[in-house]
Amino acid sequence: MAVLSAPKIVSARAEYADSHTLSRFLATGGYEGLRKALSMPPEAVAAEVDAASLLGRGGAGFPAGRKWSMLRKAPTSYLVVNGDESEPATFKDHYLVERDPHQLVEGVTIAAYALQVNQAFIYLRGEFALGLERVQQALNDAYEQGALGSNIFGSGFSLDIVVHPGAGAYICGEETSLIEALEGKRGFPRIKPPFFPAAIGLYGQPTVVNNVETMSNLPWIISHGGAAFAALGEGRSTGTRLFALSGRVNNPGMFELEMVKNTFRDLIFDPALGGGIVGGHALKAFIPGGVSAPWFGPDELDLPLGQDEVAAKASMLGSGSIVVFDETTCVVRAAWRITKFFSRESCGQCTPCREGSGWLERIMFRLEHGGGRREDLELLLDLCDNIAPGLGWPPQQTTICVLGSSIPSSIHSAITMFRDDFLAHVTNDGCTHG
Amino acid sequence: MSHFRPELRQRAEETVALYPERRSAMLPLLHLSQEQDGYLTEEAMEEVAELTGTTPAEVRGTAAFYDMFHLEPVGKYVVGVCTNIACLIAGGEELLAHASETLGCAVGGTSSDGLFTLEETECLADCNIAPCVQVNHRYVRTTTPEALDALVEDLRAGKRGDEIPPHGTLIRVKRSGGLRSPAAQIADERANERVAREARTAKEGQ
Known about the structure:
The complex is a heterodimer of chains A (434) and B (206).
Chain A: H1 22-27, H2 32-38, H3 42-52, H4 64-69, E1 78-83, H5 92-99, H6 101-115, E2 119-124, H7 129-145, E3 160-165, H8 175-182, E4 207-211, H9 212-216, H10 218-224, H11 226-230, E5 233-234, E6 237-238, E7 240-247, E8 253-258, H12 264-269, E9 283-287, H13 307-311, E10 321-326, H14 331-345, H15 351-369, H16 376-387, H17 402-406, H18 408-417, H19 419-428
Parallel strand pairs in A: 1-2, 1-4, 2-3, 7-10
Antiparallel strand pairs in A: 5-6, 7-8, 9-10
Helix pairs in contact in A: 2-6, 2-10, 3-6, 5-6, 5-7, 6-7, 14-15, 14-18, 15-16, 16-18, 18-19
Chain B: H1 6-17, H2 26-37, H3 42-52, H4 56-63, E1 77-82, H5 85-89, H6 92-103, E2 116-121, E3 133-135, E4 138-139, H7 145-156, H8 183-205
Parallel strand pairs in B: 1-2
Antiparallel strand pairs in B: 1-3, 3-4
Helix pairs in contact in B: 1-2, 2-3, 3-4, 6-7
């Protein structure tokens, strides 16, 4: 049975139809966390976030408090919020910016105060037209309420937040690429080192880049204390998390669950959550954390929804997005489509990614659509090994950013788990699912 | 003579002033250009270059990187159908093929009446309501061929304009607060630059 007793931390307001409005926000504890934060020294605010052990919710899962502590001291530094959510099957930030934009703005203001940064940018995917409008409205409201701008709530702290629309590029979810886009350039990732944003970020200045969901946790953490947050979950995975469930389940959607206390089986099959597989079919495989993550089979269903628990099985919880395949799903087609995505979205800077993704996509295409050869399987794995040598997890990197090393995940998983399906595609000269 | 309408020119200048460095206004200004013209015209890119302190070539080179920017005219409605993983499983490819028939245009093409452009998109982050369809980047949540056809009929009849503005209009909520953007200061800066540029041009002409 699923454990559903934990409080809703980031999705508490979402049950209201007007959850995005200032009036609902103010009637449900809006700005309480911010007011409390402003009454504390900035270091004490950062210490609460540290005590919460809040792991970044963007995908890499780096502790937010530690990221903040790495910010190089400088007269000018920036806070950039990453809302360029583009990892396929991920829709939590879309949900947060549309449903609770004020919570995001409050969280960003708390973070900026803790970091003593006076300029923040919220970079949102351009495709989030409604989200962009709602965040802009929330900013306008906050300025009017004195919760943003100069001398916030009489504290002497001033902050300006600008919402910045992206323009359609998966790679801009990578933090250094996002910074390039924010500087008005093509979204080419920067090489690290030296371009760790905490040292050399936006305009060459020290910059903290945090995810939308990470920021949205801050009002609650400050209101209730870091210890209350850390009391939820287990081990390094504290608090709750938004899990985005899609694919062949009866009830796809967004579920805020306490970390570690539930398993993938609970999420997918519990009547209060995913509600089981469509048509009572058998589960074939699932992706545990966005399409960059290696796949799991039915054997891993009882794994807890926790960062280290998933990492221990050589995959990742990543962006918290779970895609379910059943026996009607063609895994060759699924892996081909994911590879086509990476091929389209490769920025083109590094040869293994630019050339490798296109080559892999063409081989996967012929396997799925006819013309595939038996020896293609070994060729695919060899190519994957050239991009991420050893095909282990976490992957070895031959490229500037991790887009490249994420490409092999789906192909490697699909061939390892479902070799017979590939061979059937060769024999059948194309897809066996009609 | 500004290519932007006066109101958009003013918004463009205010946008530039929001950033510590004006090149940062590149993507927002390109969106504004599309709001006026539906796509990126040469004139608009030249003006964005002037506003961001770059060259038209840099503007074009940057714009070409991003899927949402169009260097050729597109329909009044850009229909995007997602075929990425969650939508693939839910019949995204079939819905895309159906949309192509209904709209009378190939994927990537524009209908002969200039009303619709059809695009196959990557994940649009609405995977629990799959396959995901956006029109001018508004989620329309038409997951079946029938629902899509009804929507297209509405758009052909000129309905749903409040919900779905013509292609290019992205953020209809105007920024109404903030620490930056003293309008007069921007105007002064621009005037000084214009004088400097004219002096340069005059010098080159000699």
